[in-house]
Amino acid sequence: MSGPNKKKSAGKKVAAIIILLIIVLAVAAFIGYRSGISAVSSDSKQVTVNIESGSTAGDVITKLDEAGLINNALCAKVYVRLHSPDVIKANTYVLDKNMDLDTMFDIISNGDSKYIVQTKLTIIEGSTIPQVADDVSAVADVSKDEVLKKWSDESYLKSLIDEYWFLDDEILDKDIKYPLEGYLYPETYFVPDEDVTVEGLTKQFLDMTDQKLSEIKDDMKKSDFTTHELLTFASLVESEANFDEDIPKIAGVFMNRMKEKMRLQCDSTVLYALGKKHIDVSINETTTDDPYNTYKNEGLPPGPICATLAETVEDCINYEDSDYLFFFATEDGTVLYTKTYEEHQKVVKENKWY
């Protein structure tokens, strides 16, 4: 065989070997990929996973990996890139270690009710601890008194103070009606069956508070208030505002009154002191001898008076600067702001509807 022919033959052999290697590597990669997205176990073991609202496919991968439901995180990320699952339905799912990634994403994308934890509890902004205790009592199958007793147990509260950065000894003040008032975050919760206990639910509530307040922690540090004082201040605003646009304005009014050493005279604090819910607060009620009554006491009450959104807290930090010292809400919820007591009295007289 001539020299050039030998070189061509050798070149073909090298090319064939390279092609073979590429095929072998591709097959190996495919096998590795399939193994990486396969079930982590052939045995059945249920695992509860909470997929939060607004989660991306990448967030789901992280949740599944943390729950021990993924063989290989890198392969799972490749799966997401290849399949681009863009429908993620928030809920708490009961998945199984014998499910592959395809199956789990199918369940989460379709919100398959067969795999959803059914216990649901909603804390509405403006709710008070007794109202939340009613809801917890209903799902945890314990009495309301037992819930309130747990939430006032000093040793339990101290354990929570040790665990959460936003809780401190201020909640143990003897004048505070309910130590966890204002700290149980208003949100809709999907609760795994094993967590439907007072302690389990409380952890979910406080974990959500941790998540939400951590997002605005830097802004909170700019406030002249302690965390407890800030949540107390924000709860007063939350209880008085009917519409979001009024929150920074009402916060501004309260700030002005505090700067002027005026009593806040917040009707909601009187009602909280009395454990009542109505519109027309009487003069006699404003004389109630209670630490929460801001008609009788200067400054903030001992603690928050309701559950408050993080957005409200942030609006209170960035309150609207004005000269207003009074406000009055009309029947349709419109808030009228005034600078003097005389102007305020005139507005009340012209617009009083209750």
Write up what this structure looks like:
The chain has 354 residues and is mainly alpha-helical. The chain has 14 helices and six strands. The chain has helices at 3-36, 57-66, 73-83, 101-110, 129-140, 144-150, 154-163, 198-214, 217-222, 227-240, 247-259, 267-274, 310-317, 341-351, and strands at 46-51, 91-96, 120-122, 188-190, 326-329, 335-338. The strands form three sheets. A two-stranded antiparallel sheet has the order 1-2. It has a two-stranded antiparallel ribbon with strand order 3-4. The chain has a two-stranded antiparallel sheet with strand order 5-6. Helix 2 (57-66) runs antiparallel to helix 3, helix 10 (227-240) crosses helix 11 (247-259) and helix 10 (227-240) packs across helix 13 (310-317). The model has no long low-confidence stretch (mean pLDDT 91).
Topology:
Elements: H1 3-36, E1 46-51, H2 57-66, H3 73-83, E2 91-96, H4 101-110, E3 120-122, H5 129-140, H6 144-150, H7 154-163, E4 188-190, H8 198-214, H9 217-222, H10 227-240, H11 247-259, H12 267-274, H13 310-317, E5 326-329, E6 335-338, H14 341-351
Antiparallel strand pairs: 1-2, 3-4, 5-6
Helix pairs in contact: 1-3, 2-3, 5-6, 10-11, 10-13, 11-13
